[in-house]
Amino acid sequence: MRWVPGRDTVSWSGPAKSAGPQTDGIWIGEVGGAAAIRLVPDGYSPAWKDDGSGVYYSRIGTHAGLWRFDVGSLAPVQLRQWAEIDYFDVRGGRLVFARIGSATRIFRLPLM
């Protein structure tokens, strides 16, 4: 779960591997508010832009990579291709991600 910046709203994702359309994707819901809304049908691990105008998320399979969904335009955009990434976060225009395995590595990259 992640707070949406500047709102009393939380976001979460379904499982990284599909469990079915009723749970897949990126969801948001107001604390004590109406029913949850699915923003993105296929993605996991939401990480919000500092101003709350968009959410970064990961996908696997044929569309594997880092994606951003802009809340205003409702448009998804793929930013980077990658194989499965275990953990990532975005802050201040920087992407930090980890690959877990026999040699765990943490990387930091600027977002364009």
Give the SSE map.
Elements: E1 2-3, E2 9-13, E3 26-30, E4 37-40, E5 44-48, E6 54-59, E7 65-70, E8 75-81, E9 87-91, E10 94-99, E11 105-110
Antiparallel strand pairs: 1-2, 2-3, 3-4, 5-6, 6-7, 7-8, 9-10, 10-11
Task: Give me some keywords for this one.
mainly beta; four-stranded antiparallel beta sheet; 112 residues; 11 strands; single chain
Gyration radius from CA atoms, angstroms? 14 Å
Tally of DSSP helical segments: 0
Largest sheet: 4 strands, antiparallel
Shape: globular
Q: Could you give the distance between the termini?
A: 25 Å
SSE ordering: EEEEEEEEEEE
Tally the beta strands.
11
Whole-number mean pLDDT: 85
Question: Which strand-content bin applies to the residues?
Answer: over 45%
Tally of separate domains: 1
Description of the structure:
With 112 residues, the protein is an all-beta fold. The protein has one domain. It is built from no helices and eleven strands. The protein has strands spanning 2-3, 9-13, 26-30, 37-40, 44-48, 54-59, 65-70, 75-81, 87-91, 94-99, 105-110. The protein has a four-stranded antiparallel beta sheet, with no helix packed on it. A hairpin with a 5-residue loop joins strand 5 and strand 6. It starts with a strand and ends with a strand. The model has no long low-confidence stretch (mean pLDDT 85).
